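A reminder from the course coordinator: this example appears on the midterm review sheet, so study it carefully.

Given structure:
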C-alpha cells in the first residue's frame, strides 16, 4: 500500500506499515478502534493522519505474545 509492504486479500489491504516507526496499521471498524485505543492505549493508538479513518496503529514491541494462543 502506498509503496510500502502490506498484507492484502483479494487486492484489498488490511495491514501494512504505518507512518510511525515500529508500528503497523490495521484495518479496523471505527467502533472497535475507539474501544481498543481506550482499553489498550499502550498497544493501540492513532495519529492525526488516521483520525476518522478505519485504521488503527499497533506498537509492535508492546504486544505480549504470551496473551495469544499459538497454532
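Designed residues:
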Amino acid at each position: 500500500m502506498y509503496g510500502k509492504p502490506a498484507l492484502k486479500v483479494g487486492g484489498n489491504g488490511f495491514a501494512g506499515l504505518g507512518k510511525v516507526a515500529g508500528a503497523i496499521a490495521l484495518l479496523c471498524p471505527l467502533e472497535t478502534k475507539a474501544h481498543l485505543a481506550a482499553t489498550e492505549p499502550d498497544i493501540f493508538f492513532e495519529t492525526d493522519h488516521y483520525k476518522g479513518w478505519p485504521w488503527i496503529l499497533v506498537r509492535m514491541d508492546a504486544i505480549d505474545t504470551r496473551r495469544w494462543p499459538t497454532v
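Residues 6-67 form one domain. The radius of gyration is 12 Å.
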